[in-house]
Design goal:
It is a single chain. This protein has 335 residues and is of the alpha/beta class. The protein is built from 16 helices and nine strands. The chain starts with a strand and ends in a 12-residue tail after the last helix. The model has no long low-confidence stretch (mean pLDDT 97). The structure holds NADPH dihydro-nicotinamide-adenine-dinucleotide phosphate (NDP) and magnesium ion (2 copies). One magnesium ion binds next to α9. Belongs to the ketol-acid reductoisomerase family.
């Protein structure tokens, strides 16, 4: 059974009189900065001079410093810029400011687990990884609910690393929902596997393949869109609220029977074997290496695949249909 920490296990006083430097003000950064501040903790924000996020952080009332200056001021330094830039930012601006007693924090284990960042032994290195995008972390904090998070300790130089991380989690509101104990290794590998095999890679390609199968067979793209994409939201809501068994209870017996007989044909032994290979590439670090090399090369393949994916016919149909369903609050990628 997982160890789960709640409000009574965490003490905000571990952060009293300390300054948290939030480096990055994107999805996670803005939510961490604002939730911690509302919990009575002293927060400064660190961003490059050229950052587009500076204006937003300043408008939200934060003292916005250079990354180096924020790292200097912070007793706790929270690395909330994109994973692929963290190594560079760490080496240039953060490492020179690390003094014994400081705490380096992450919201994802990638850079520590794959050895891209190797902090000195005299500092604490911990992770609080909220299990939601930043805007949900912020919204649920304001509603007094909080989102669940993971906690991990990579280095405990002070002897208080876990208590400090738990205090940080409490400041985010996460101990209201529950904070599960893990390791950097487990968090990183399961997070990457989940997003690749199921959440992002698996689901999006399942949707596209289903859409293509129907359209190639001569069915109207609009119907295909409704059947394989739009309805997914309703199914996922049922699964989220009551598990697979509640979804199967809610759909028709015909749908449930089709689930049992056709599902295993889609997710067959070949797919399971591929899942194993994907997991192995994550465990050996091969995926991480490939992704960082792609960044170093200026993202040629990533940019091409993104562009190709955005031009898939399902996107054009979807855009038209979503415009006819104002209640679902259609969204666009900001330019
Ligand atoms: P975002 O991409 O949303 O935000 C990036 C922020 O970092 C922006 O403010 C950006 O500024 C700034 N930034 C970019 N480059 C630098 C730099 N060189 N130095 C300092 N700041 C920089 O990131 P996320 O919030 O998604 O991710 C942050 C961390 O949180 C990652 O480790 C991620 O894995 C983790 N995480 C993310 C979750 C999510 O749902 N998004 C969930 C849980 C964990 P600018 O506007 O100028 O680009
Ligand atoms: Mg992830
Ligand atoms: Mg149906």
């Amino acid at each position: 059974m997982a160890t789960i920490y709640y409000d009574q296990d965490a003490d905000l006083s571990y952060l009293q009189g300390k300054t948290v430097a939030v480096l990055g003000y994107g999805s996670q950064g803005h939510a961490h900065a604002q939730n911690l501040r509302d919990s009575g903790i002293n927060v400064v924000v660190g961003l490059p001079e050229t950052s587009r996020s500076r204006e937003r952080a300043a408008a939200d009332g934060f003292e916005v410093l250079s990354v180096a200056e924020a790292a200097r001021r912070g007793d706790v330094i929270s690395m909330l810029m994109p994973d692929h830039v963290q190594k560079g930012v760490y080496e240039e601006y953060v490492a020179p400011e690390l003094k014994p007693g400081k705490v380096l924090m992450f919201a994802h284990g990638f850079n520590i687990h794959y050895g891209r960042i190797v902090p000195p032994a005299e500092i604490d290195v911990t992770m609080i990884a909220p299990k939601s995008p930043g805007h949900v972390l912020r919204d649920l904090y304001r509603q007094g609910i909080g989102v669940p998070a993971l906690i991990a300790v990579h280095q405990d130089a002070s002897g208080q690393a876990k208590q400090l991380a738990l205090a940080y989690a409490k400041g985010l509101g996460c101990t209201k929902a529950g904070v599960l104990e893990t390791t950097f290794k487990e968090e990183t590998e399961t997070d990457l596997f989940g997003e690749q095999a199921v959440l992002c890679g698996g689901v999006s390609h399942l949707i596209q393949a289903g859409f293509e199968t129907l359209v190639e067979a001569g069915y109207q793209p609009e119907l295909a869109y409704f059947e394989v994409l739009n309805e997914l939201k309703l199914i996922v809501d049922l699964i989220y609220e009551g598990g697979l068994k509640f979804m199967r209870y809610s759909v028709s017996d015909t749908a449930e029977y089709g689930d049992y007989v056709s599902g295993p044909k889609i997710i067959d032994d070949r797919v399971r074997e591929t899942m194993h290979q994907i997991l192995q590439d994550i465990q050996t670090g091969r995926f991480a290496q490939q992704w960082m090399a792609e960044n170093d090369a200026g993202r040629p393949n990533f940019s091409r695949m993104r562009q190709e994916a955005q031009q898939h016919p399902i996107e054009e149909v979807g855009e038209r249909l979503r415009a006819m369903m104002p209640w679902l609050k259609a969204r666009q990628i900001p330019s």
